[in-house]
Design brief:
Helices cover 60% and strands 14% of the residues. A 6-stranded antiparallel β-sheet has the order 2-1-4-5-6-7, covered by helices on one side. It has a 6-stranded mixed β-sheet with strand order 8-11-12-3-13-14. A two-stranded antiparallel ribbon has the order 9-10. The protein has helices at residues 42-52, 112-124, 128-134, 150-160, 164-252, 257-287, 300-381, 383-421, 426-448, 480-501, 524-534; strands at 2-10, 20-23, 29-34, 73-81, 84-92, 96-101, 104-105, 136-137, 454-457, 463-466, 508-512, 539-544, 555-562, 565-568.
Length: 569
Amino acid sequence: MIEFKQIRYKNFLSSGNQFTTIHLNQNKDTLIVGQNGAGKSTILDALTFSLFGKPFRKVNKPQLVNTVNERDCVVEIEFAVGKREYKIVRGIKPNIFEIYRDGSKLNEDSSANDQQNYLEKQILKLNYKSFTQIVILGSASFVPFMQLTAANRREVIEDLLDIKVFSSMLEIIKLQLKDAKDNLKVLDLKKESVADKILMQKRFIKTIEESSQNDIVAKQKEISSLVQESASYQEKVLDLLEEVEDLQTAAKGFTSSGDTVKKLGQFRAKLQSKKHSSGEEIKFFQDNSVCPTCTQSIEDSFRVNRIEHLQQLLQKHEDSLSQIGEAISAEEEKEQKFLKLQKEITNLSNEISQFNIRISNSTKRKGDLESEIQDITDRLENRSAEDVKLSEYKKSLKTILETIQNTKEEFDLLTQGQLLLKDDGVKSSIIRKYLPTINKLVNDYLQRMDFYINFTLDEEFNEKIQTPVHEKFSYPSFSEGEKMRIDLALLFTWREIARMKNSVVTNLLIMDEVFDSSLDGFGTEEFLKIVRFVIKDANVFIISHKNELFDKFNHCLEFKKVGGFSRLA
């Protein structure tokens, strides 16, 4: 049970900078009166703002701050749930949202949304719609149950019957169904991938079996051809080497010809110089009988003897030069033969080199082929490894198929659970169980208010109304006073159902301007009897303009405007 104890507020709507405090659990019934604008209905907005962060009436949040002080708007509410004591503090300018449990602040690091969810789901266990249906009946900005949409009607009933857990379970199942669908898609992709691997592995094994032996035979034939080719090249190389050796032997006899020609050339140059000198000297003695330097006469006998001697010497030089010329010609001939032999040796060496390259390439290719044959042989020998790989793929596919089957079974179970948890499932069964009780209570309360109609709600929470005059009637067809009686009957019914289910039980009941609207002759005394004796364990607050009701209530609160601010008189 939620026992609301106290609410207080300041700078909230028309209230000033001093806290207005209202005790919520001290009196069985309390009348709240005041002129229009005095602030008597402010308690409704303060209640819903403190608990749900929004006012009861159609007022924007910034407009809740007192327009004179323009800041420090604060609402505090204290209540107990079982043995736990709670206090909620909300403020605007600055923004405040604090939850206290047994004096300690909760969830200081949580976001405002997280705190609100915790407050509604874990502490109050009711939301704004349900609160306004079982705690407040207002004439202004209030949407009675009968004016709610079908979805909102269902939400209220589910809260009261404590079956909203099924809706939460349904949302969980929807998420699980989505996950299952996504998992099935992923598993299908994995299945296709592994199936492709199995097919490729089978093809690979078949290729090994069909092509390996043919490849080996073809490569062995190529190796045999390469061996023969290399042998032929080697024979040619040996022949060429013999030729080179013969040429090198022949060339040894000509190796010094170049040096000899050079030396002979130098010697010939010296002889030619001596020959020239002897010729010049002969000419001198032939042409001169007097020395041109000292002008002395040269004896004829000396000149003759000298010329004879020089002529003999000149003949020797000419003979020597003739011999040297012959020797140089012989050596140059030998040099030409040597160069020719060297050229032949070079050409043969190049040819040998080309054959050696071919032999090397053949040897390398032979090695590559032998390596390829070995790889093929190893593959054939390791065929079992490929079979193991294929077996692993098949095992993986089996596991995936089993997982798919399990996931499909899970999906089917979740689908069945979804069907059960939908509005027309188990919730409808529970609602059908309580509908007779709900309809009986509504009609009992209507009769207590001297309104003799047969009012029933169906499973979709559509009303069916029979009057003494009309067999079929609807809520909009009644007068405002008659609608008020239906609204009151439903309010009392929801509180009784909540008490029976122990889902949302509270001490607080507030009715705004109930006596100010037409109740079509329904008396104040009769209504107060229902409030005092039928509505059990409740602290009832009646908001009214009628000061004449003072003597009808055990406790009264009057609001007045003083200096532009709402205050308790």
